[in-house]
Design goal:
The chain has 25 helices and 13 strands. By secondary structure, the protein is α/β, with parallel strands linked by helices.
Length: 533
């Protein structure tokens, strides 16, 4: 069992401290598997510090797993932070309120998140509604004199207008800088409004990677909403997910299980009953491992220690792990056999169509591992991938949750495996060293960047598309449509000029600014000399 998560604390330990998360690395996937030292870090989470020291500590403190100094780069194009993740997690609850205690600029993402929320509700066949997010709109005078009264009034307004089941307060960079005490205000106001008030410490500079925002959101839900006195429902399974279509119900129905989705698009009652489930799983260990571990440690709900449900191997193992918990091994074996027989003819047809095709994945880490599995099941070669961060170990520390190791062992190595935090300026170099016929991107803002380089891009807005046996077919058929439009991207490339200098586009190493930060000063100096001449 991993080191126990402390639910008494309102603040969550950052991923880079808790898991050793890194945001910059370049090499073969097999090298990262070795250098991540999953087993050694798992021992560290158990508290065996001597063992952990032998295998290297947190990346960035001199251990070889860092490979690049992720803090030295003079340029950063990141567009996401932990505060924004809280928006798209807690802000997507249907009968709760999120109050962003922040300047209005921190709420700029809400228009996009509102669109995603509505699409998610539609996919889940739930009534469509708008986000329920307030913003205290801090002004200059609030930054000088404090804004606690503004927050108190926002809590009262939220209760009066919407009568929510719970109110969450998110901290921003600005409110952290001036020392706003959202914990005390939550304790003070909760008796007045009569619903749980949950502070979330998610200021953007708290963590180097936005994925800490998932943990912060799940921590708050576990603290104040999950039922402390559960009555077990033997047919209920938690699936920690985003906005994806409800494919899990069909996958798990033969095992007699009902799906309880959390956190996106859920309501208070669905979150509350999480402790009543027979188990917890997820489509992505990056997203779900914190919540699954909390539910296991504090509420006795076991998490599924299995590969993610992608491709034949992953889906088979995932179903068998669930079957073992619910006692339906025989039925599951029959189900697996019948599913293989059902989908295999179409998979074989797709493999014929994809002969010689190469693909590239650019998404979050564990999700990328699942997608690469699906592409290789379809016969598509994958020589390169960009993941937005890498967790050397997950919170559960399960042996079968080591998704990168599972990928390499089951489907082979990825020669050019890059960890980079949505740095669009690196893409010309990244794509120059691999040949690819398309790229799958999870964060839609990066899809146009690939398209401008002449590469057809699939923005995977519905993240559940590749899940399960049918997920391979769904993904393959979408990719056939994408590849049929390659000419558009070739024309686009000829008519679009990249916003980078010829000097930068001539570089071969996407991480040269991290390795040699002074090189940009040298290039600028040479440019000025030429102008002077």
């Amino acid at each position: 069992m991993a080191k126990k998560i402390n639910l008494e604390m309102t603040s969550v330990e950052n991923r880079e401290m808790r898991l050793g998360t890194i945001i910059a690395w370049d090499g073969a996937a097999s090298e990262l598997v070795e250098e991540s030292d999953y087993e050694g870090r798992k021992e560290k989470k158990k508290g065996n510090d001597i063992h952990a020291q032998k295998h290297g500590g947190c990346p960035g403190n001199g251990s070889k797993a860092c490979r690049l100094c992720e803090l030295k780069t003079p340029l950063n194009q990141q567009t996401m932070c932990a505060n924004a993740i809280v928006e798209c997690q807690i802000g997507n609850l249907t009968d709760c309120i999120l109050i962003q205690h922040s300047p209005i600029g921190c709420a700029a993402d809400n228009a996009w998140f509102n669109l995603a929320f509505k699409m998610g509700l539609t996919r889940r066949h739930k009534p469509v509604q708008n986000l329920r997010i307030f913003c205290t709109n801090l002004l200059e005078k609030d930054m000088v004199f404090g804004a606690s009264d503004k927050l108190r009034q926002a809590i009262r307004d939220a209760k009066e207008r919407f009568n929510p089941k719970a109110i969450f307060i998110s901290m921003a960079c600005a409110t952290a800088i001036i020392g706003e005490d959202i914990d005390s205000i939550a304790d003070e106001m909760e008796p007045e409004v009569g619903v749980p008030i949950i502070p979330l410490h998610c200021e953007g500079f708290r963590s180097k990677h936005w994925s800490t925002g998932f943990d912060i959101s799940q921590h708050g839900v576990a603290q104040k909403i999950v039922n402390r006195n559960p009555k077990k429902q033997k047919d209920l399974i938690n699936i920690v997910a985003l906005w994806g279509t409800d494919y899990f119900t069909d996958i798990l129905k033969p095992l007699g299980l009902r799906v309880n989705y959390m956190i996106d698009c859920a309501n208070y009652a669905e979150l509350e009953q999480a402790s009543e489930a027979v188990a917890t799983s997820t489509f992505c260990h990056t997203l779900g491992s914190y919540m699954a571990t909390v539910l296991e440690q504090h509420f006795g709900v076991p998490q599924i220690d299995a590969p993610q449900p992608y491709g034949f191997a992953g889906t088979d193992a995932w179903l068998r792990a669930i079957a073992k918990i619910v006692g339906k091994e025989n039925e599951t074996e029959e189900y697996i056999k019948s599913e293989h027989e059902r989908v295999m003819p179409r998979i074989l047809e797709l493999r014929e169509k994809f002969k010689g095709v190469k693909g590239f994945i650019m998404t979050g880490s564990a999700y990328a591992h699942g997608l690469i599995s699906v592409l290789r099941e379809l016969g598509i070669e994958v020589d390169g991938s960009v993941v937005f961060h890498h967790d050397p170990v997950y919170d559960g520390g399960g042996e079968n949750q080591n998704s990168l190791k599972n990928l390499v062992e089951e489907y082979g190595d990825i020669p050019h495996y890059t960890v980079s935090k949505t740095q669009a300026y690196q893409l010309p170099q990244v794509f120059r060293r691999v040949r690819t016929d398309f790229v799958i991107i999870r964060h839609q803002g990066l899809a146009p960047e690939a398209a401008k380089l002449g590469i057809p891009a699939l923005a995977m807005g519905d993240e559940h598309i590749p899940v399960g046996y049918d997920g391979m077919i769904r993904t393959g058929e979408i990719l056939l449509d994408i590849l049929a439009r390659k000419r558009f991207n070739q024309v686009l490339q000829r008519h679009v000029e990249l916003p980078y200098t010829k000097w930068w586009q001539s570089q071969d190493d996407p991480f040269i600014l991290s390795k040699e930060p002074e090189v940009i000063d040298k290039a600028l100096s040479e440019k000025l000399k030429k102008k002077g001449a």
